[in-house]
Amino acid sequence: xxxxxxxxxxxxxxxxxxQATKGVLNNPYYVxxxxxxxxxxxxxxxxxxxxxxxxxxxxxxxIGEQAPIKFDKILDFYLYGIDxxxxxxxxxxxxxxxxxxxxxxxxxxxxxxxxxGDFFQIDYLKEKVLFKVNDANSDTLDNGSNVYQISYKLExxxxxxxIEKQVEKTYRCMIGNAGTDFKCxxxxxxxxxxxxxxxxxxxxxxxxxxxFNAKVQNFVYKMNGYYFYDPYLVEFMIRNKLMSYGxxxxxxxxxxxxxxxxxxxxxxxxxxxxENPDELATRAIRNTASAVIISDINSLMTTTIDKxxxxxxxxxxLFNARVExxxxxxxxxxxxxxxxxxxxxxxxxxxxxxxAYFKKDYxxxxxxxxxxxxxxxxxxxxxxxxxIPINIFIISHFIMYLMEKTTG
Length: 408
Prior knowledge:
Radius of gyration: 28 Å
Helix content: 25-40%
Strand content: 15-25%
Oligomer: single chain
Order of helices and strands: HEEHHEEEEHEEHEEEEHHHEEEHHHHH
Number of strands: 15
Structural class: alpha+beta
Shape: elongated
Strand order of the largest sheet: 1-2-3-6-5-4
């Protein structure tokens, strides 16, 4: 995971182009690469809301106040193979009224199932005109996906306002999700929420830079004059690419050698449970760690006059100072699902996102998340050293939830 969900970064775009070139023959969509995409606003019939004549099952009008057909509006949709529409529309003084404008186009697999009676508007045209789908035929690719070829014809002129009155819901096409496990057509309200959450992710990554120590090139926090480094938190950030949200690339790495039992020890931390939330109730979490001074000569943290301590979750030496990672009260509320109230202190309410995540309370995350996070004062202390990466992880997973095909 990582990167921007609604706008792929340049580096990833270049990488995807290289991979596509290497595996073009195995790509079920390569047959469309010679056809130009055209961005349209597509009006798909909403069969559940459409009412037809009860006797004949037919409708008498497609567009207009009395029309029984309802539509779902899809923004940023792409049709492939539409050519020369702009030229045709501009031919002659009465070109729109006298020349038949029709053609064929291809609908990318795993997007929508077009039907006769759908409409679309070509976004780049100055004229606000509607094209009607007169026919839709499907074929099956080798991977089982259905590709559709539609026949269209210019049907209505200056009818956009009328068809807008027949729109039930507005969706947006995320064409980059075609052929993936994520929804290609998503409700516009969810899309706008995703964009806001992406902005929050970028802000959180930026806020976390207060913990980056330039001398040792790593994330640490300071307490009582000493610096503390947590390799398990670093592992959590690496595994989930948590610092990849935002404009700047931030390299996250281990500063000290990890023990042979590191992978096993990681499964006992809150970070592993965040990755596997269903194990919260059954897995014993080591929520305290001892602070052991870093003495490895290969570590940058031994090259400064400051003292750096490393968090060890499997250390039983009673003489080492111990640090509680997440307040015990918070872990109990994560198990019970009891959120803090608006009247509770803000230093407690900041953990509500974590509690809601384990509770699978997506309504809370959607309704209160942005305002709560924007209100926080991100001071460079131990609490936010752990809480910010955790919140980044949870928000990114909520975005994935909004995009999953199983969520409606």
